[in-house]
Amino acid sequence: MPLAPSLLKRLRAIVGHGNVLDGTVDLQTYEYDGFPETHRPDAVAFVHSTDEVAAVVKALHEARVPFVPRGYGTNLSGGTLPVRAGVVIELSRMNRILEIDIADRCVAVQPGVFTLDVSTALAPLGYHYAPDPASERASSIGGNIAENAGGPHCFKYGVTSNHVLGLEVVLPDGDVVWLGGKHPEPLGLDLTGLFVGSEGTLGIVTAAILRILRRPEAVKTILAAFSSVDDAAQAVSSMVSAGMTPATLELMDHRSVNAVEDALACGLPRDAGAVLLVELDGLVDGLDEATAAVTDICRAHRAVEVRTARDEDERDALWQGRRGCYAAITWSTSSYLMDGTVPRTMLPSALRQVTAIAQRHDVRVFTLAHAGDGNLHPVFVFDQRDADERRRVMAAGHDVLAACVALGGTISGEHGVGLEKLDAMSLVFGAEELRAQRMVKEVFDPAGWCNPGKLLPEPA
Amino acid sequence: MMSASADGLIARLEALLGRGAVSYAPALTIHGARAVAEVSPTDEAQVGALLRIAGEEGLSVCVAGGATKLEWGDPPRRFDLLLRTGALQSTTQLDADDLCVSASAGITVASLAATAGAAGRVLPLDVACLERATLGGTVATAVQGPRSPAYGRVKDLVLGLRAVLPDGTSARFGGRTMKNVAGYDMTRLLTGSYGALGVITEVTLRLLPTPQQQAVLVAGLPSLERAREVADRLLGSHLEPAVLELVTAEASPLTLVVAFAGTDALVARSLAETRRYLGDAETHVAEAGEAGRIGDAERLLAGITRGATGDPGGPGIGDSARVALRALLPLRATWHVLGVALDAAERWGLRVEHSLGVLRGVLELTAERPGYDRADGDDTDLALWAEQVCAAAAAGGGALVTEGFLHCSPILGSAWSGMDTSAALMRALKHRFDPCQVLNPGRGFGGV
Q: Taking the complete model, does pTM exceed 0.90, yes or no?
C-alpha cells in the first residue's frame, strides 16, 4: 500500500524533496540485502543528521508506518529487508567521523561510516578499531552495531559489542537518548550492551563512541596447509587448549581455496584439503617464539606446508584471499551462507557434520570458519531456478544449525537472526526466554513499527 | 511489609526450603535495614518458588551472595526477605581445553579460581574479598579490579548465564560459545544489573591461559603530574600493561603499579621500557616475578591494590565514619577527579585512599575522618567531600556509586550520580520485568 501523500510530503519537508524516493524503479534497489529474498519498501528516506532521523521516525510513528534502518545492505540474515513494507531509513549519508579522542582512547562516528574507514583514519596516529568483518570495506558501523558484527581478528580482540562504549539512539517514537558514553564501564543497566546486536529492532543508532586500540608493534602471518579439514580443525583446537592467542585463526576448505585461486590467484595451495590463516601480533619481543610454537602445532597435526608471509605484500595477498573468499564462491551462483557457532573444542566434529549433511541432502558446500571462535561459515551454493535444489539447501542449512545447537553451540555467531533464523530461534530458546526478550522489545518499541518481523518469532 | 500474622507465609517458606534454610534473625543489614527472614535456597527451582511466593504475598526480596557489596547503591525501598545465594553450589563444569567454566552463583570467586588454577587456567575475576565474594554477586555487580586491562571487563567475560526472573520463571541466555548473536544480548543486560531484573543462578565465564611469566613494578612518584606523565608514555607505547594503577601505598601516596604478563621476552622488554619511562630519579622501585615466581608477583599486586580499596563491608561503613566511592569515567577524567578528591580531602581534613585505573577508567576512593566520634554522628564533611567528587565526575562525563550511603546527610540524594538520559528506559525495563517491585526495589541506578 503506497504511503499517504501527506506523509510523503511531511518526509520531504524534513529531509529535502530529492531525498525521498518512492518510484518503483528506485525502490527496487532497496528490496534486497545479502539474504536471498526480496521485499520492496514503499519509500526510502535519505537522512543527514540525528535531527532528521528523529523527525522522520516521529512522523512514521505518528502515521503508524513501519520503518527499517539501512546502511549499505550487506546484511546476510535479511535484517534490512522491509518485510512489512513501509519506509527504509537510509543512513549512508551520515558518514562522518565526528571526533578522534586519543587521550580517552575512543572515536565518535556517525553510523554510515564504512567500518574500514575508521581504522584508515586512525592508522597515521598509530591506532585502530579492532572489529573487522570480511565486509569491512562495504559495511557500515551502524550495521555492524546492529548485528554485533565479528570478523577474523575477533579471536583475540572480541566482537563489536566489546568495542562500543556509547550510542546516540533515536528510539522508535522519535525520542533521542544517549546510552553509555566515553567511560569504559557502564553505569546501571547496560543498555549499550543490550542495544548492540538488536538488529535495528529497538531504535536507530545515530552516533557511536567506539573504543580504539594501539596498532600492534609487529605482525606475523602464517599459512598452514593440511591434507584434510579434520587435521586443520584439530590443530586449531590444540592451539586454543595450549592457551595461544593468535589474532586470527581462519580456516578455508579445499573447495574454498580453489574458488579463491580461480578468482584471485593469491598463491594459496590448490591441492590442500584445508588451509589455516594464523596471524600473531603484539610486541616484537616473543613473536618469533610464538610463531615457532604455532608452526610446531601445525606440523604435529600433519600440516603439509607451513609458511610465514615474508613481507607486507605477501600478507596482503593471503588476506585478500580470505576476505575475497565469499565473493569468489558466490559470484556466479546463488548461495546460502551459514553462521552456526560451537564451543571451540567441538569444531572438528561440527565440520565433519557439515560434510555429512551436505552429502545427505545432495548439495554443494564450501566451508570457511573463524575457527578460533568456533564460528562456522558453510556456504551452500545452488541454482536459483532449481526449486528442488533450493529446498534441499534450506533443509541442509536447518540441519547445520540443529547440529551446532546439539554440540552445545548456537545458531548465529555474527550474522544475526534477522528474517532468516526466526524459525531456528526455538532451537536455542524456550518459551520463557523468548517472552523475556519480547518484554525488552515492548519497552523500546511498544507500537512495534521499528524493523518489524525480525529477530523474534511471533508468539505461538 | 510482612506482618506478624503471616504464619502461613512462614509455613510456606519452611515447607519449601526446610526449616534450617529459613532464619528469622538475619545478621545482615543493608544500610541499616534488616529483613524479616533470611532464606537460603539450594537450587534454581527453589529460587523460582521463593520469588513466586514473594510476588503472591507482596514481599520484596533483596539478594546477597557473599555480602561484600551490599552497601553499594541505595537502600531498598522495601526489604522483607533476604535471599542468600551461597547455597547455590551444585554445578562446576570446567572445560580447560575450551577455556570456559560454568558454575553455580553461590560458589566463591576464590574457590572457583582455585579450581581453574588446578586446571592450568586463570579465572579472570579480580575482586576484593574473594574468599567471600561469590560468582553470582560479582557478575551481578560487574565490578572488576585493577587487572581489568589483562582480564577484560566482567561484561566481556560472561558467555552465558541462567537466571530466575522476578516472576519466578527460569531462563538461560547466551551459552558456551565465544560468539553468540541469537536474540537480544540478555546476558549483558543482567550482568551489572545489581539484581534488578533477575537472580543469577549460574554463570558461564571465559577462562584465560596461565601466562608463562608475570612481573610487577612499583614506583613512588612525587606528584600527580609526574604520575600522569609516566602513564601517558606507557599508554602511547606498544606495551600492554596487565595492570596500570595509581594507588595509595604505605611507601608513597602516589604509587604507580605496573604489571605485565606473557612470554619471558615480552615481560623483560616491558619492564626495561617501563623503567626508562620512570627515569633515574624515581626510587621505591620493587619488582617481583622476574625469576618465574608468578606467585610472588600475585601477592605483591594483591597487597598493593587492595590496600587502596579496603575491605568492603568492614567496620565504619554504614556508620558514616567512612565513605567509599567508585567512579566510572572517561580515561582522561580519572586524573582530574582524583585531583579534586585529594584537594577537597585536604580542605576537610579527611584521609583519602585511592586506586586510579588508568586503562579501565575507574577511580576507587575511600575517605575517612581520623578520630571520628560516633556519638557526635555528624558526617557533613564526608558528605560535602563526596558531593564535590560527584560533581567533578559528572562534569568529566562519568558517573559514580557510593558505598555506605550517608543517611544522615541531605546533601547526597542518592548513592548514584551521573548524567544519563537513559535512566527512564532503565526504569521502564525494571517495571516491565518486575511490575510488583519484588527484586531489590530502588537499589539500582536511576531508582531501578
A: yes
